[in-house]
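Researcher: Re-running this chain for the archive, since the previous output was lost when a drive failed. Same request as before.
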Amino acid sequence: MGDDARTLSEVLRRRAASDRDRAALDFEDRSFTFGDVQSHADDWAAALAGAGVTPGARLALMSANRPEFVFAVYGALQLGAAVVMFSPAWKAMEVQHACAVVSPQFVLGDDAGCAALAAALPTAPVVRLDRAVPAAAGDPGPSFDDVDADAVLVFSSGTTGLPKAVRHTHRSLGHGVQHWIASLGLTDRDHFQVATPPVHILGLLNIVTAVAAGSRIRLHPRFELDASLRAIAEERMTLEMAVAPIALGMANHPHLEDFDLSSLRYIMWGATPVAEEVARTVSRRSGVRWLPAYGTSEVPVIAANPVQDPERWRLDSAGLAAPGVEIRIADPDTGAVLEPGSRGEIEVRSRSAMAGYLPDSETAAAFHDGWYRTGDIGWLEPEGWLHITDRLKEMIKVRGFQVAPAELEAVLHGDPRVHDCAVFGVDDDELGEAIVAAVVLAPGAQVAPEELQAVIADRLAGYKRVRHVMVVDAIPRLPSGKALRRQLKEAWIADRR
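Model: Regenerated structure tokens:
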């Protein structure tokens, strides 16, 4: 994607023109051709324009998985609006924070999403995905053509705590799409499913990449392992996307052998490092191999195993730099670039890198001489194979989602029974990481761990659930006040040996 860069909506328009009658999107018992997707996008563009949406507007989108999610996103992009992805799992505090960061002018979602967003944005016009949209009258006209305008914003957490909005332009995400097509070896003969939420970068990337490649996708209303396995077998899907919980579910499925998965070229493992024994168990039981890959919200595709050379696939490495991506290892303190074999922070340079964060004040620290600082620690082999070993950032990664310790600590600090606290993650085969809260109780306070877990559960999304509570005498801190979470984690691990 260079001088011929196109907006995401123009990519759909060209695909619909060349493959109008070919199946593009399945949902439950409904199927839509590429022509249908374009027609529905035109209808949504007209409806959104009627509600006052203009180029540059930001739409807060909060919805469960459904075809209208896809149609409305493309309709908004066609108008030149930017779509801000709000997780339907978020609760009031999380929604309010995200709204404060991005200041959306419009609310778009299913009934539940609109209710949550309207509470935080009481004066914003509301457009409901649950209401029928009339067919657009007449020629919809040309698509918005500014490839450097914001297209989508997804939320990610950095080292400073609360979530930030990652800004992707049509150009940057378009490059990410091309990198994903190349990394997956994707063609118009491929057929796969999207079980991860489209508000997450992987789910969103898979949808827009399928359109660009002409692939067919099935969107599920929610993830159910048996339904996903049946879809692979019955529809003869050619590749599968998995994060750690899906992989673990497959490995532990009592009847995995009953599903014919022989049509799959591979299963892609992303979002967390590969658990090799889990991957080997699935391959042994299903006959399907794994294609590890690595990306972030800020740079959607960074590395992948070489899809065209299966004999070189490895479970111990995220792979080689994706086409169009450069990877280097730098000393996290000095910024000095390190030689192969040395451990340091993984830095990435690519035209698919985000345009920046909101708030914008967070952007400068995310880059080092034009290279994006991933916050992940790793090393490179001389041949370029990337190994991820740790994270410089203190984010906790649960089921592929980043959780900011500061966000949970803010909730716990608000409980009068808690004097001090610090939150950290520990390795967990199912979740990737499980959340542990170290708590210093207020003098005289008596509280069961389950009660503190409920405090978090009542305020934050389910994937931010605290799995363990450890009561300590004091939280170790630097003179600056920064909690020494690693010391707490080491104490937690030592207590369980």
